[in-house]
Amino acid sequence: MLTAEQQKELLIQLSQLIAKLGIQFIMAILILLMGLWLAKLIQNLSKRLMIKAQVEPTLIRFFVNLIYMATVTFVVLTALGRLGLKTTSFVAVLGAAGLAIGLALQGSLSNFASGVFMIFFRPFKVHDYIEGGGVEGIVEEIQIFTTLLKTPDNKTIIIPNSKLYGDKIVNHSIQPIRRVDIKLNISYNTNLDQVREIFTTLVKNDSRILLEPIPDLEIQEIAAGGIKTLLTVWVVNSDYLRVRSDLNQQLKQSLEGAEIQLV
Predict the structure, then answer these.
(1) C-alpha span between 180 and 168 (Å, rounded)
(2) For residues 216 and 230, what is the distance between their CA atoms, to the nearest angstrom?
(3) Over the Cα atoms of the chain, what is R_g?
(4) What is the rounded CA–CA span in Å between residue 167 and residue 146?
(5) How many whole angstroms separate alpha carbon 84 and alpha carbon 95?
(6) Residue 210 C-alpha from the chain's centroid
(7) Which residues contact 59 (CB under 8 A, 6 or more apart)?
(8) Which is the most buried residue in 22, 58, 86, 103, by most CB within 10 A?
């Protein structure tokens, strides 16, 4: 049984403890509120700086969210420490959880790293026509973990970034002009000057064909089955497929009209 003096002393200690905890709680709340405001400020500032530096939008979204979450985590740990809680154990738990998640998501992390590299180094961009990872098509979207391609027959291919970045990438759109190659195997009794004249006429009549680099007809090989030739012209990249198709058709018609035999 406590005496009146002891009860009075206990009440004084409890009131002091409550006052101390109350101040700590208020300070923790203030730290939390100020920290969240600061995290949002840092997030917006980082976003503006990356936009000014012309960083890829996909990478901007990822990094500003990562910066925000890291800042919020630091603020929460600081607020818990102000309440008198030992934050060392929380840090250890977060570290262990991060390690476990990293081991479980090795494939995803590989895709993420490849996605970051592709966004930074830009071997291709959206709307480029590329080959890579055993597929080809027009790039529709470059995401953090995957890349979306649209094939010429209008199918969408979702390819993991690690497979795409780890393979040979052929970008058909990166250069402003491309060379159209047309191979012809003609018989030995063909007049090569006549073939060259037909080729020159077709080139002059097609305004899409560039005069520089100079169009050329090359005799590649005198083979047992005939004379192997290569016709080359240069065009603007966007005209490549159409010019190749048209030139093949016009050559066929012109050679048939001149009674030149292909083998």
Answers:
(1) 22
(2) 8
(3) 35
(4) 14
(5) 21
(6) 32
(7) 50, 116, 119, 120, 144
(8) 58
3-state secondary structure of 136: strand
Kindly give, in sequence order, each residue whose CB lies less than 8 Å from that of residue 172, ignoring residues fewer than 6 positions away. Answer: 128, 129, 130, 131, 178, 237, 240
Distances (CA, A) of 67 to 41, 81, 186: 11, 21, 66
Residue 106 structure tokens = 């090795």
pTM for this structure? 0.60
DSSP bridge partners of 157: 149
Q: What are the strands of the beta sheet with 146-150, ordered from one edge?
A: 156-160, 146-150, 135-142, 129-132, 170-171
Instruction: Give the CA dihedral 19, 20, 25, 27, nearest 10 degrees.
Output: 110
CB 77 within 8 A of CB 88: no
Assign 28 to helix, strand or coil: helix
Report the length, in residues, of the chain.
Answer: 263
Cα separation, 229 vs 59, whole angstroms: 48
Q: What is the dihedral of CA 92, 62, 36, 21, to 10 degrees?
A: -10
Which residues, in sequence order, are CB contacts of 10 under 8 Å at separation 6+?
A: 2
47 in helix, strand or coil?
helix
Query: Is residue 141 a contact partner of residue 125, using CB atoms and an 8 Å limit?
Result: no
From first to last of its 263 residues, the chain has per-residue pLDDT tens of 556 665 556 555 555 555 555 667 777 777 778 888 888 888 888 888 878 877 767 667 767 777 888 888 888 877 777 766 666 656 555 665 555 545 444 556 777 778 778 877 788 888 899 999 889 999 998 887 889 999 989 999 999 988 898 889 999 999 999 999 999 888 888 888 888 899 999 999 999 999 999 999 998 888 877 889 999 999 999 999 899 999 999 998 988 887 777 77
